[in-house]
Design brief:
Largest sheet: 7 strands, mixed
Strand content: 35-45%
Order of helices and strands: EHEEEEEEEEHEEH
Radius of gyration: 16 Å
Distance between the termini: 29 Å
Shape: globular
Structural class: mainly beta
Number of helices: 3
């Protein structure tokens, strides 16, 4: 399930909370997995680095609103989640994540650049298990005007994507 937003002009976190207009909705086949597995290496002799991600974009412009990436930490081999957030956030509030109606966890926004703001957190085995059995990963933030914004990210296909990630050596 893709988040489709229809907003004219620059996309700010505040705009992400506006409902999508049905006529602008772009549909994907029902069996399409919104979680993509991507791999790359720096050179022919370097190790292959893989990650799973879901990119949510604004319908009219195709501008990125949110990207959720899960990848293996090269230092200890555990999984970590990186959130690439939109512009227009109140940075001191951080970002939060919540699986369905479970416990909400707030994490610091660590940096920002011309493409948006970024937050990262390690993923415990229990959290990965909850993501595999969950329906939505709700990403929360506050707009620069302090309005709360929640963007639901579908967890459909997450289990298959993580299994694919684990099978790549």
């Amino acid at each position: 399930m893709w988040l489709i937003l229809s907003v004219a002009g620059p996309v700010l976190a505040e705009d992400a909370a506006k409902p999508a207009e049905p006529k602008e909705a772009q549909s994907k086949p029902a069996d399409a997995n919104p979680w993509a597995v991507n791999c790359s290496s720096g050179s022919a002799n370097s190790e292959l680095r893989c990650q799973v991600s879901q990119n949510l974009t604004e319908a009219k412009t195709g501008q990125r609103v949110l990207t959720v990436t899960v990848r293996r930490d090269s230092g200890n081999g555990s999984l970590a989640m990186l959130l690439a957030l939109p512009h227009g956030l109140f940075l001191p509030s951080g970002a939060s994540y919540q699986i369905d109606q479970g416990q909400k966890t707030t994490i610091a926004i660590q940096t920002s650049d011309q493409n948006g703001a970024y937050a990262a957190t390690p993923l415990s085995l229990d959290l990965v298990k909850a993501m595999k059995s969950g329906t939505n990963l709700n990403i929360g933030m506050e707009s620069v005007t302090r309005k709360p914004v929640t963007i639901p990210v579908s967890l459909a296909g997450f289990t298959a994507a993580i299994a694919r990630l684990e099978s790549i050596k």
